[in-house]
Amino acid sequence: MGMQKWIMSGLFFAACAFAVVLMFTLPGKEQVAEEEKPTMPVVQLDAASAEATVKASCVSCHGDQLQGGVGPSLQQAGGEHDAEELYSIISKGRGQMPSFKDQLAPEEIANVAMWLAEKK
User: Could you say which residues bind heme c here (predicted)?
Assistant: First the structure.
């Protein structure tokens, strides 16, 4: 009988220790927010390719000169957002803007984000 009690208290102690470990290893709110931000792949900027992608995917809402339309002007996008922020917005969408992660490859989005980030 004494042995069983000892095993149960050992199990209880192990469960408590596990709970404490979990508390410290589970990501906090800040870490979760970080993880939701898609990671931008490293690409070499190819302006011609970026412009082609923008003409195909962005001008219908942002205007043929990126002057804005349904969507905001992107002519100074780099003054407002860095490439990683732009990558996240294009990938996930924001407000009225749809997500493009299913239409464009991550490398294409990264290339467009880098291209837009230079527009200041």
Answer: 58, 61-62, 97
